[in-house]
Amino acid sequence: MTGPRILSFAAWRGGRYVGLAEVLASLGSVIEDHRWRLIIDWLVSPELEAITEATASSLVSTSELVELFSVDCQLIDGELVGHGGSSSVPEVRIRAFDSGHWDVRTDSSELLEKIVMLYPDAHELPEW
Question: What's the whole-model pTM score?
Answer without folding.
Answer: 0.93
